[in-house]
Automatic annotation (TrEMBL):
InterPro entries: Cyt_c-like_dom, Cyt_c-like_dom_sf, Cytochrome_c-type_DH. This is C-type cytochrome. SUPFAM superfamilies: Cytochrome c. Keywords: Heme, Iron, Membrane, Metal-binding, Transmembrane, Transmembrane helix. PROSITE patterns: CYTC. The chain crosses the membrane at residues 6-25. Residues 51-150, 196-288 form the Cytochrome c domain.
Length: 288
């Protein structure tokens, strides 16, 4: 019986220590999310013509905005689990529960280019590290489309990080605070360089870097239990696939042998790439 008591006390001590460690880690993450950034966000005229709005709609598709904010961008909950937490993409329209009527160009730029909310606090999960590299021309077209959205009445709860996500952020195994990594002083490029497929493909591949890294070599799983992130370069699948097979994989989520890609692969995003965009992306990845 004495040994059982000792084991009980040891287990109790471990529980208390683990709880204290987590509480400290949670506080540290909360402090990072409460940080206010002093950012001089650029402002520029936003087009209103139909061609720019149509281009903006396409950009919203291929940047994955609808995956988290819903098909109509009226917001949705895309994760709600005990360990992960409740993750929601807010309503981006001017309907009830959406952005306020005075939400201006500067607010869009802060969110998309700097990963910050209107009060200069970091946004969570938002892929601003990737969209921060968008050209002024593309950013303007995207904002033009967002400004033109029909109002959707939908109130979405605020995101709350769960125990596992907070712990992974604290130990450096997960990046969901893009504002910490963005170069907020970087010059805004006027327009993207499409002078060659490789340059155009490199620009497009920015959206792939969040999972596959800057070198597109992939690496360990993004979250525990998920498959490893694959190599997209010439030494990986891209080197083995033809352009047609590459296109099919990104549009259907299926490899040439018929097996499904990793469920974390955002096919709902990549299926909207045009033939020209897929050719440029394939050419760039094959060059690596």
């Amino acid at each position: 019986m004495k040994i059982l008591k000792v084991i009980g006390w040891v287990l109790a001590a471990l529980v208390v220590m683990s709880t204290l460690v987590y509480l400290y880690a949670s506080w540290q993450v909360d402090q990072r999310l409460a940080k206010q950034y002093n950012v001089a966000a650029e402002e520029f005229p936003i087009p209103t013509d139909s061609a720019s709005i149509a281009k903006g709609s396409h950009l919203v598709d291929i940047k994955g905005c609808r995956d988290c904010h819903g098909d109509n961008l009226g917001g949705k909950i895309f994760a709600d689990e005990l360990l992960i937490g409740k993750l929601a993409g807010p309503n981006l329209t001017r309907g009830k529960g959406g952005i306020p009527d005075d939400y201006a160009t500067l607010n869009w730029i802060k969110a998309i280019r700097h990963g910050l909310d209107s009060s200069n606090h970091p946004l969570m999960v938002m892929p601003s590290l990737e969209t921060s590299k968008m050209s002024q021309e593309d950013l303007g077209a995207m904002i033009a489309y967002l400004n033109d959205l029909p109002p959707v009445d939908n109130s979405v709860p605020e995101s709350k990080l769960g125990v596992m996500i907070k712990t992974m952020i604290y130990i450096g195994e997960l990046d969901v605070i893009p504002a910490e990594q963005i170069d907020h002083t970087a010059t805004l490029v006027k327009s993207m360089d499409t002078s060659s497929p490789v340059k155009y493909g490199k620009y497009l591949a920015t959206m792939c870097s969040g999972c596959h890294h800057e070198n597109m070599k992939g690496g360990p799983p993004m979250v525990p239990g998920s498959p490893s992130v694959p190599d997209l370069t010439a030494t990986g699948a891209t080197g083995r696939w033809t352009q047609e097979q590459f296109n099919t994989a990104l549009r259907t989520g299926k490899r040439p042998d018929g097996t499904e890609l990793d469920p974390n692969m955002p096919v709902q995003m990549t299926k909207h790439y045009s033939d020209e965009e897929l050719q440029a992306l394939y050419t760039y990845l094959k060059s690596l």
